Amino acid sequence: MSDTPKAFPPRIFSGIQPSGGLTLGNYLGALKRFVQAQDQGIETIYCMVDLHAITVWQDPAKLRHATRELAAGFIAAGIDPARSILFNQSQVPAHAQLAWIFNCVARMGWLKRMTQFKDKAGKNAENASTGLFAYPNLMAADIMAYHATHVPVGEDQKQHLELTRDIAAKFNHDYGVEFFPIVEPVIEGAATRVMSLRDGTKKMSKSDPSDMSRINLTDDADAIAQKLRKARTDPEPLPEALDGLAERPEARNLVNIYAALADISPEDVIAQYGGQGFGAFKPALADLAVEKLAPINAEMSRLMQDVAEIDRILGEGAARANAIAQPILDQCYDIVGLVRSRP
Ligand code: ATP
Ligand code: MG
Prior knowledge:
Blueprint: E1 11-16, H1 24-39, E2 43-48, H2 50-53, H3 60-77, E3 85-88, H4 94-103, H5 108-112, H6 115-121, H7 130-144, E4 150-152, H8 158-175, E5 184-186, H9 221-229, H10 249-262, H11 266-273, H12 278-304, H13 307-336
Parallel strand pairs: 1-2, 2-3, 4-5
């Protein structure tokens, strides 16, 4: 091995699970950033990670619908299937195949530290699927199957990306190669962790049983306004300076959401609304959210009228993804010593 690390060309990969409808958290923490990355002209690969979704039970018909609706959400938010590669994970076999290799690289102790498993399995960990436990290995495979160098995600995925780095480094070390890049997490913006509207200590999630906890990209203007009006807050007005939000998670969350939607800093939001109560701030936030989300919502509904076209886009994206991932998988199997006898 040479002393200077091998340089991998920049390539962005990220995914979202079709485990429900898209939320404002997914939009601000992930999707909006995906569009920015695409528009910077870097190679971008985006995936509906359906194999991740089935780590918890999914009704088959709902999963199919959610996968297509998620694809519609990507496109409606600004992902151009001609410029980005857009597909669903299960159509590219290299993800699951590489995940098996990583099951054999990652250590039990590493996975046992993953907080997402603890959060999702809850008190009943013995009864969780082994897929839920091994989830981070599949996520590492998603990224490494493309030799991706940068992964835009929300805050909650930071630990999984650190594990991805550990897996890549251990593989490279164990086989004496510089085959997998050490990926850089890209966690940026004012809303890297959008919190539940019902509980400022819990992140907003598409799989949360309470629909009032989140804003869905499919919510209409009335639902958005109602959910924000009922969002849990404290009785104090907004502070005059940002550090006044330190012990106020719900207020801080709404300020961050406003900032991310308006593309301004939280400081700017406080400069504008400091001293005002939620009676004034919540309707302003609702108006802004509706202004930004309504066009996406309308475009998603339009796209969902032609499911065959969505499937065609996903199929074409899968073929392009496969063309990158299959040779990487073949090389990886070869490094490991798995005989490849096909020409
Ligand atoms: P689930 O509850 O099924 O895990 P989810 O809402 O957490 O769904 P994922 O598909 O797990 O969504 O994550 C997709 C992307 O959205 C990831 O990059 C994740 O970090 C980001 N994300 C998820 N929730 C939030 C949030 N509340 N704030 C910011 N980013 C988020
Ligand atoms: Mg999640």
